[in-house]
Design brief:
16 helices, alpha+beta, 11% strand, four-stranded antiparallel beta sheet
Length: 457
């Protein structure tokens, strides 16, 4: 081989090497650009109008001075209602602890409440657990979302997780289940879970979101704002007939009974309208910040909710808005109002600065005077119409206190929660809020523990 031929061959090799390096470099640059474009690293997020309330220093001191261990509540909730039940990624609605003897075994819910799963998702986001959040979003989208786009109100765990492996499955107990679940074969749509999901997806967007998620949020907002009416369901006795007339001393509390029906048996009442507690007003507000075309509709819904206050004597809120300025205050033959839906409504209004002063004062008065809240109140007198303590109510009242900066109400409500808080080191419910059940049993429910995890961060 001549000297000139060798030099020429060497130059060709260098050219090929340079070309190969250039191709690889271009490929790496293109890949990096795609990754950056699809990530949230350099994506300028839009403002979702997130609303944040923090505990005062005195409130934090109240927690520190007691036995409350908020850092462990979340992990204990996952353990008792998911991990030990073999139901990942789902939380069961409740779990009744075993008795002191083998003849009194544990009980567990047969159902998954969709609203609880969305609260769990929000907890993952607040805790920065992105992989768990992503997994749960996929599960909600594939297994709890109906064909019409709404989230289902509930699902049977046997349908979601048909094979739970070697996990011990305990018997369920109908008396602990949500009555509507037992009376329905197919789960209805849940505006409450769907609108909460919209808000939680905005929380995800604020933390990790990108343009693709914003597009999904926009599509979901359009879907939720288009909701004009939904069918609401309540379990009530056979004498129950919804009574949408104004509250007064002359109103008939007990409708005429139907002699063909058994008054001792529950039935399912359904009504078309908008349940006030199902409209997540904060989600609607934040969606209207992102997409101003919904501002008018948002204001209309706030007005509907605010005008649903029952009376000065009982400044709780109606069950449902049925249209044309009319509200359904209760569904039942006894003329009683469920407390919890009203408290959810109050928290939504308070977060937007729209809560009626009378409603907040009523809550303060109940807690200051008795330090107890009950599941139902008489429509006319406003006195307790139930002997069952509404444990789920206390986290909601604590949130009201945080929003208002009311340190006295926070302290009183904290004391009420501590009555139902497990501190015994050998207890399976350690560091969880529990409920007293019949026959001296104790149960832990997902709802109040998730709410406290979110509110007391």
């Amino acid at each position: 081989m001549s000297f000139l031929t060798a030099v020429k061959k060497h130059k060709n090799q260098k050219i090929w090497i340079i070309a190969a390096v250039a191709v690889v470099a271009v490929a790496l640059i293109v890949t990096a650009v795609i990754l950056i474009r699809n990530s949230s690293l350099f994506y300028k997020k839009k403002d979702t109008g997130a609303i944040v309330f923090k505990m005062t220093e005195a409130m934090s001191d109240t927690l520190k001075e007691g036995e409350f261990q908020k850092g462990y509540m979340f992990t204990r909730t996952e353990k008792n209602l998911m991990e030990d039940r073999g139901t990942s990624p789902w939380l069961l609605s409740w779990y009744v602890l075993p008795g002191t003897t083998r003849s009194v075994p544990a009980l567990e819910s047969s159902y998954v409440d969709t609203y609880n799963q969305v609260l769990l998702l929000d907890s993952y986001i607040l805790e920065g657990k992105k992989s768990k959040a992503d997994k749960l979003i996929k599960a909600i989208d594939s297994q709890l979302t109906r064909d019409d786009g709404y989230l289902a109100e509930f699902a049977r765990i046997s349908d979601l997780v048909p094979d739970r492996g070697d996990v011990t499955i305990f018997d369920g107990c109908d008396r602990n289940e949500e009555p509507t679940y037992l009376l329905m074969e197919d789960a209805p749509a849940s505006l409450a879970a769907t609108s909460l999901y919209l808000r939680v997806l905005m929380d995800y967007y604020d933390k990790w979101g990108d343009a693709a998620l914003l597009t999904r949020i926009e599509e979901m907002a359009e879907f939720v704002f288009a909701t004009d009416t939904m069918t609401g369901y309540k379990a009530a006795d056979q004498l129950a007939k919804p009574t949408p007339i104004p509250v007064s001393e002359d109103m008939p509390i007990t409708p005429e009974p139907d002699p063909e029906e058994d008054p001792g048996k529950e039935k399912l009442i359904s009504l078309d309208g908008l349940e006030l507690s199902s409209m997540d007003l904060e989600a609607l507000y934040r969606a209207s910040v992102l997409f101003p075309e919904y501002e008018e509709k948002y204001q209309e819904w706030v007005k509907i909710v605010k005008e649903g206050k029952i009376s000065e004597t009982l400044p709780l809120y109606a069950w449902m808005y049925t249209g044309n300025g009319e509200y359904m205050y209760y569904a039942g033959s006894a003329g009683t109002v469920d407390l919890l839906p009203s408290l959810y409504t109050m928290v939504q209004l308070a977060r937007l600065g729209e809560l009626d002063n009378d409603s907040y004062a009523w809550v303060q008065q109940q807690m200051i005077n008795s330090e107890f809240l009950y599941t139902a109140y008489d429509l006319l007198s406003g006195t307790p119409a139930s002997s069952v303590e509404a444990v789920e109510a206390y986290p909601l009242v604590m949130e009201l206190a945080i929003i208002k900066g009311d340190e006295n109400l926070f302290r009183i409500t904290h004391a009420a929660i501590m009555r139902q808080y497990a501190t015994l080191s050998t207890s399976q419910a350690l560091y969880m809020v529990f409920r007293n059940m019949e026959e001296g049993r104790y149960a832990v429910y997902a709802r109040e523990n998730l709410l406290l995890e979110i509110y007391l961060r």
